Amino acid sequence: MELDHSLGRNTLIQHFGEEEKIMGAVAPPIFQNSLFVFDKMDDLLDAMANNPAGEPHHYSRMSNPSVDLIEKKLALLEGTDCCKVLGCGQAALTMAVMSCVQQGAHIICVDTAYGPLINLVTDYLARFGVTHTLVLGNDVNEIIDAIRPETTCIYLESPSSLVFRLQDMETIAKVARERGITTVCDNTYNTPLHMQPHKLGIDIVCHSATKYLGGHSDITAGVLCTDKDRMEKILRSEVNLLGSILHPFQSWLLNRSLRTLPLRLKQHEATGNTVATWLEGRTEIAKVNHISLNSYPQRELYLKLMTGSGGLFSFETVQQDPVKVKAFVDALKIFQRGVSWGGFESLVVSLNVKPMGFEESKWLVRLFCGLEDASDLIADLEQALPLLH
Ligand SMILES: *Cc1c(COP(=O)(O)O)cnc(C)c1O
């Protein structure tokens, strides 16, 4: 019997979709098979025609019980009818955008969205006659002004994962719905525990599950959540044609990771806030971009749309000499130099960026606070900060 959806989120994360115990196994087994066979040819043809994904399963590119389990759980958490897990986050973003454009369509996209997604919109899709407008995203009127008769997609990422700008999802979704424009958002930073964009009106919600959802830096995975009609179309076209599915073992690992997501996220958030607050008090630091600081410029919107923050943030150093910024980053011992985030380990990258709204390019340092002790992370930063003098 399916668990009551009104149970607490922690309970649902542990047990939803796992009610039926296969041979009594308390942790679900892995269905490591590429296909499913049928007694009657007609039953196979029927499954293929009427059920591209889901039971009865016929081919693991379309669906598999180990994959289904995690999809049902994630759809419940995001508050959507359906979810598809994919081989990586970028696959989810690409499929979401491709599902709502055709030749001649126009996309509005926040300019601080994930880099490869920007490449998809500005380079790859341009080859097929899709045009775009990049926007800053923090003013709804800027987005309304960018809408054209051929606009079919508004792409958001809130907060962006470098300068941490927020968009007013709720108002933008309302404007888009009135005009029949599909909204897509990358919810990787928030996870469904801190924001549920679909409940704010967003049509397609995506994640890189390589980050918090996976949480252990041992899998790449992506998530695409949406309503039933839209998912049916995406399954028959983008998923079926582009592939990039998540495999059974990776899905099983993702389910294992989800069990501790609420605990991990709380810890990342607490440590992130402690470290960001400490950095804000240092003279070597010009500005800290962490969404839950009192100094954060869009604090009201943060409190309105989200129920928490996290361990990822960036800061601007007073010292902008690239040699010194790199020396500082290289001197860190617990923060390791690496591009990803959301795992157990603390990470650092320094980047020279010039997003819309910046008059000149600047060196930013982005930190991800892992699950180590906050006091050790602060001591690590403290021993390296003199290199910024
Ligand atoms: C990492 C990341 C992605 C891409 O996900 P992959 O799993 O690496 O393909 C997309 N959006 C954000 C915000 C990310 O941090």
The side-by-side strand order for the widest beta sheet comes to: 1-7-6-5-4-2-3
Amino-to-carboxy terminus distance: 63 Å
Q: Describe the biggest sheet?
A: 7 strands, mixed
CATH architecture of the largest domain: 3-Layer(aba) Sandwich
Characterization of this structure:
- It is a single chain.
- The protein is of the alpha/beta class.
- The chain has two domains: 9-258, Aspartate Aminotransferase, domain 2 (3-Layer(aba) Sandwich); 262-388, Aspartate Aminotransferase, domain 1, CATH 3.90.1150.10.
- The protein is 38% helix and 16% strand.
- It contains 14 helices and twelve strands.
- The chain has a seven-stranded mixed sheet with strand order 1-7-6-5-4-2-3, sandwiched between helices.
- Strand 4 (151-157), helix 7 (169-178) and strand 5 form a beta-alpha-beta unit.
- Helix 3 (65-78) runs parallel beside helix 10 (248-258).
- The termini are far apart.
- The model has no long low-confidence stretch (mean pLDDT 97).
- The structure holds pyridoxal-5'-phosphate.
- Pyridoxal-5'-phosphate (PLP) is lined by residues 88-90, 114, 161, 186, 188, 208, 210-211, 220, 222.
- Residues 88-90, 114, 161, 186, 188, 208, 210-211, 220, 222 line the site of pyridoxal-5'-phosphate.
